[in-house]
Amino acid sequence: MDAKELLEKYKSGNCTDAEKAIVETWYLKFELERPGDLSDTELNDATDRIWNKLPVHEENPVKRRKLWSYAGIAAAILFVVSAGTYYLKPFSFNSHPALLKQTAKTEFPQILPGGNKATLTLANGRKITLDEAGNGRLAEQAGMIITKTKDGQLVYTVSDRGNLINGQTETNVISTPKGGQYQINLPDGTKVWLNAASSLRFPVVFTGAERKVSLTGEAYFEVAKAYPAKPFKVAAALQTVEVLGTHFNISSYSDEPAVKTTLLEGSVKVTVKTTSNPDVLLKPGQQSSLVGNQLHVNLANTEEAVAWKNGMFRFKDADLLTVMRSVARWYDVEVSYEGSLPARQFSGEIHRNINLSEVLDILSFFKVHFRVEGKKITVTS
């Protein structure tokens, strides 16, 4: 589709959200160069000149697309207010009623984003569905009270110190499904945010010389510093991360090519099991990647690593497989592929609180094609 075809599609009211964002960005660029109202003739005459200045224009079809430059506007720098009016910070289109009359349409079914969903499995086998449980006290184990707060967190607090020692062998597991996330305050006060399709195994009481938990999936940790003589350890896949008090993120999904540990504050030691890799001490802003049995350390994009915790998808030169794995986990859908994958790399951010249809609209603008049947998405060439 060339620039003039897209402009005609916009005028007829048949643009998707992503296409609408392109045209309105184009319009704004022209308006900033030539203030005042624009006639249809002026708009058409200027199309090619302005289009060439936009990121969407490209002679090389494999050129990287910047989501935040245009399509990601619907969920990043562009946002939607209740009236359906689009704004592009720091400018608005309020003064152009003709632009506001257009209504984007989508061909995709509405699949809602994920939310606070998790299951707590107690040491005795009892399962508590946290998103269905009421607020307040849920259970008591080995001198610990388990409470669900009004803002949807799970908190462990001491009720009987005399019984704490009896809980050293009792283990709880909190698990999130696809389309779920949850925050838990562990018995030592450590705060953990679990991403979708993740689980954390931890003792009801931290006794002995260390505080050790096991993770599958992804979690962000803010480790309590009140136990300087008792290091906090996270076992994830083939590695163990050891800290005293720090903020870090671990991504250890089985369908991702690497286990990534990203340090935001403090220091951590990463140890790899069954290999001759030396222990690695990470500094803030560094990330270790365990690929197979090999451990690598690089500078981290910390905003990208913890974007999920802050309600965002954030990508930096990510291929389509990487993007769709994140989408599948958060929207609880299955993704398959037909034909050859488009040679695309994506950089930018999209809010995780929008419907799946809006995400697919954004990706569709980059000549990525989808067929949606229920909760099954097929990416076609």
Automatic annotation (TrEMBL):
<feature type="domain" description="Protein FecR C-terminal">
    <location>
        <begin position="313"/>
        <end position="379"/>
    </location>
</feature>
<keyword id="KW-1133">Transmembrane helix</keyword>
<feature type="domain" description="FecR protein">
    <location>
        <begin position="173"/>
        <end position="269"/>
    </location>
</feature>
<dbReference type="InterPro" id="IPR032508">
    <property type="entry name" value="FecR_C"/>
</dbReference>
<dbReference type="InterPro" id="IPR006860">
    <property type="entry name" value="FecR"/>
</dbReference>
<protein>
    <submittedName>
        <fullName>Contig180, whole genome shotgun sequence</fullName>
    </submittedName>
</protein>
<dbReference type="InterPro" id="IPR012373">
    <property type="entry name" value="Ferrdict_sens_TM"/>
</dbReference>
<keyword id="KW-0472">Membrane</keyword>
<feature type="transmembrane region" description="Helical">
    <location>
        <begin position="67"/>
        <end position="88"/>
    </location>
</feature>
<dbReference type="GO" id="GO:0016989">
    <property type="term" value="F:sigma factor antagonist activity"/>
</dbReference>
<dbReference type="Pfam" id="PF16344">
    <property type="entry name" value="FecR_C"/>
</dbReference>
<keyword id="KW-0812">Transmembrane</keyword>
<dbReference type="Pfam" id="PF04773">
    <property type="entry name" value="FecR"/>
</dbReference>
